[in-house]
Amino acid sequence: MIKIDKYDVDTGLFYDPRDHYWVKISGSTARVGMSPLIQETSGAFVAVQLNGLDKTFARGEAIGSIEAEKHVGPVKIPLSGKVTRVNEAVINNPRLINYDPYGEGWLIEMELTNADAEVPELIFGDHQVVAWFEEELKKFSDKGWIAQ
User: pTM above the 0.85 mark?
Assistant: First the structure.
């Protein structure tokens, strides 16, 4: 875990730079959650709906929706695969995403179907993750999405 500004960022995970999801890969399975920056800019989460259990999705497809104080939108899957588990705790208590984005605030677990082609498109490692996160932090700050 590395501290960037006021955010704890786990550089041991993969990140989808398009939609700010983190991905913890273990063999052919993965656990998915939201980055601390996106949960910060969305405000407190109030509702999570995840409809994809036992269904297969292509990368970028919506698997549900999320509602927060400042954002309502789809939950998009960061890699192609079959959703094998949905975090019922986060559905029952969406603020887990705000309080513990890398722990109890995870969203889904999945069986990967196209990892060889898609994982290289994710960001990984101290250097890449820090550079990307700092760039996103500046961009979000410049747009006024982060309170100073």
Answer: yes
